[in-house]
Amino acid sequence: MTRSKCCSKRCIYMYRVEGGKVEADYVDWDKAKIHVLSHVIHYSSGVFEGIRGYVTDKGVAIFRGRDHYRRLIRSAKIYRMLPEDYAPEDLKKEGRVKTEDLITRFMEITKDLIRENDLYRKAKKVKEEGKMANPFVYIRPVIYRGYDVKEDPILSPPLGVNPLNNPVEWFIATFLWDDYLGTTAIERGADVITSAWAKNAPSTTPFMAKGASNYATGQLAKMEAVLSAMFRDKDVAGKVKDAINKAREKNYEKVDLSLGLDDLLLPVESIQLTVSGHVAEGTGENVFVVMYEDGDPTKATIYTPPLSASILPGITRDSVIRIAKDLGYPVIETMIPREMLYIADEVFFTGTAAEVTPIRSVDGIPVGDGKPGPVTLKIRERYTGIARGKVEDPYGWVEYVEV
Ligand code: PMP
Question: pTM value?
Fold first, then answer.
């Protein structure tokens, strides 16, 4: 691979088309720009991935990176962006591109970026300094329809809905992220709501593609959650109201909401339903429901919505299904009514950023006894143990970046 190193310690890899020629290289962070007339900005013609690298004693451990890039290539294919449209020239053999070769190239660039941006050392440093609680490496590749500025750009720029005249471009960015749903959610369980914004119905936007357009309802549902607050009982509501009023009198110098905080629920996420009202997924997570037989957690069955429930085929979802089955739990993929969330013994999220996050309340109703349950914790321990390189990885999911 030919490459010129970017000059700063913060770079992004970009593959762009300019004047009909491909420009592909590492560029400085602040130079990683696209034109305002890029098709993707107007019509959401982009697909992306979110991949996680764990900071371990053996270096950065990328979790199922190849599977994420395979899903990225598939997402692009659904939007008729084929590897032949965007793969580096040297990977084209008789005009064709092997998916596995392209995945390998994406992985090489990713590892380079992690090293180049010095993310391993930086993650350790910000943790020591207390700037981030649990920093991890986040990898964000995007494939999209761009815009190639022609000689006289005023004449009919390709800005109609038809994307076929716009070049397929891509980039990979890597940076540090912290606990996605907050450290409290991980420790005590997340408070969530079911959103009035339904997931896209089949035959609207393709949910098997991790496409930007799917996140239109997702972001509305997310705002609905984070801007809402609920009280478990009226007394707490009254006390909080008093505290806010007092703070208002003092120009908000100090808003003391610590009283009864456990009874004040500040949802961090929404669960979206399908158009027919079944459970689909979180705005960035898949959902699992655990039901005990005779109240006995050792006799638990795990349920999760099937792909036909308008969900993203999550890679963490797949990992958790395999782990749960190997731990001896029956896992059933089936449509789940909303009210099953209310009567479940345990509910949890899975996702690259969220990992396995317990849910302690849905719409203000406590899940089980309102604490992370034993089945969730057992699965989480196994999942994070493998991903963080603490226990043997029998599935071959982890790939190390030497630093
Ligand atoms: N659903 C949605 C809508 C998501 O954005 C994500 C995060 N990528 C997930 C589920 C979980 O998928 P994964 O486990 O592959 O991160």
Answer: 0.93
**Which CATH number fits the domain 11-177, given the four candidates 3.10.105.10, 1.20.1250.20, 3.30.470.10, 3.40.640.10?**
3.30.470.10
Instruction: Please tell me the predicted confidence (pLDDT) of residue 342.
Output: 98
| R_g over Cα of the chain | 23
Give CB contacts under 8 A, 24+ apart, made by 32-39.
32/171, 32/173, 34/146, 34/147, 34/169, 35/146, 35/147, 35/149, 37/147, 37/157, 37/159, 38/144, 38/145, 38/146, 38/147, 38/166, 39/144, 39/145, 39/146, 39/147, 39/158, 39/159, 39/163, 39/166
In 3D space, the residue among 311, 390, 308 whose CA is nearest the CA of residue 349 turns out to be 311
Q: Is 127 among the residues known to form the active site?
A: no
355 lines ligand 1 (CB under 6 A): no
The minimum-distance atom of ligand 1 relative to the CA of 68 is 15
Averaged pLDDT, 206-211: 97
Quote the ligand 1 centre to 240 CA distance (angstroms).
35
Which of 69, 91, 140 has its CA nearest to residue 284?
140
pLDDT band at 1 (very low <50, low <70, confident <90, very high): very low
In the reported structure, the alpha carbon of residue 354 is separated from the centroid of ligand 1 by a whole-number distance in angstroms of 9
Structure tokens at 283: 């705005």
Task: Look at ligand 1, atom 3, and give the residue with the nearest C-alpha.
Answer: 284
The CATH number of 183-229+266-390, from 3.30.160.160, 3.30.300.180, 3.20.10.10, 3.40.190.10, is 3.20.10.10
Q: Is the pLDDT of residue 3 over 60?
A: no
What is the rounded average pLDDT of the residues 325-346? Answer: 98
pLDDT beyond 50 at 385: yes
